[in-house]
Amino acid sequence: MKATIIVTLKPTVLDPQGITIQRSAQSLGLAEVTVIRQGKYFDVHLAESTPLERAKELVLKLAKDVLTNPVIEEFRIVWEQKP
Amino acid sequence: MKFGVVIFPGSNCDHDCYYAIKTVTGKPVEFIWHQDTSVKGFDAVILPGGFAYGDYLRTGALAKFSPVMQAVRDFADRGGLVIGICNGFQILTEAGMLPGALMRNSNMKYICKFLQIRTETTDTPFTNQLKKGQILNVPIGHGEGNYFADEDTLKELEGNGQVAFRYLENPNGSIHDIAGIVNNKRNVLGMMPHPDRSSEQILGSTDGKLIFESMVNALAGSRG
Question: Residue B58's domain is classified under what CATH number?
Fold first, then answer.
């Protein structure tokens, strides 16, 4: 079982890295690229024997307590095999 | 009166802090290993600058899970003095011991230079030897010093006089030019500039010493 956790800055938080990358895209001539927001993702593999409810619970805890800083970031979870 | 300097894997200003306390204030100081589960016997704890856990995940994010941090949190809850400098400030925000967060500098660059900060409150155990409005010459050295907090938090910080220091010229994009804050109990201070690197004239400034001397003064006072 695998979950991918995608962490991004909240929409209200300035993302200087994304802005810099977007400017580079403009320099490359990709004028249509108006906004880039940078984030990170984590592939989390769980033991196959993990009960589904437990899997959901622990991935949520991991995302909330470790992988994101709730002051500036938000996350979404994508399950490869939907539990 | 005994100071403790926590060493995380990747701390690199631990010896600067140790030296500043020992040599400049002349007070006893010991290192505290990050695996320790107690800070018993210490009257003040310093979280030094550096790159704890290699800044992996987010600056300060993994250090908050070090065993010593539970002890530091309990110590602060009991009113113990805790100062986080640079990476120490980042750790304190990640650990939830101070509000807000420290993000990448707005210009995306690591900035290492002397600059000026203004003392915004003297009503803390860290600033009692300063005058309100006093300008300090102190160095910064960070890539993630861009302080951020939401509107409500900022209102609270400003309303309670929890902003300890502000940059005269904002180097990193920090909201409200914030360089350092205290918690609402005023016994935990986080600041990006380094008082440990500005406590002796040979380093270019002795202004940082006033912060450590304020702590000594506060601790001496609390013992009556």
Answer: 3.40.50.880
Total number of domains constituting chain B? 1
Enumerate the β-bridge partners of residue B7: B33
Q: Does A23 touch chain B (CB under 8 A)?
A: no
pLDDT (0 to 100) of residue B223: 59
Range of the domain at B173: 3-222
Which value does ipTM take for this structure? 0.83
B63 touches chain A (CB under 8 A): no
pTM metric for this prediction: 0.94
Domains: count for chain A = 1
| B198/B178 Cα distance (integer angstroms) | 19
- The CATH number for A34's domain is 3.30.1280.10
Give the closest of B61, B106, B150 to A69, CB-based.
Answer: B61
Backbone angles phi, psi at B196, to 5 degrees: -70, -25
Give A51 to chain B, closest Cα distance, Å: 26
* List of chain A residues whose C-beta atoms are within 8 Å of the C-beta of residue B143: none
Residues of B in contact with A13 (CB under 8 A): 103, 148
Asked whether residue A82 carries a pLDDT value surpassing 60, the answer given is no
Residue of B82, B89, B99, B86 whose CA lies nearest to B162:
B99
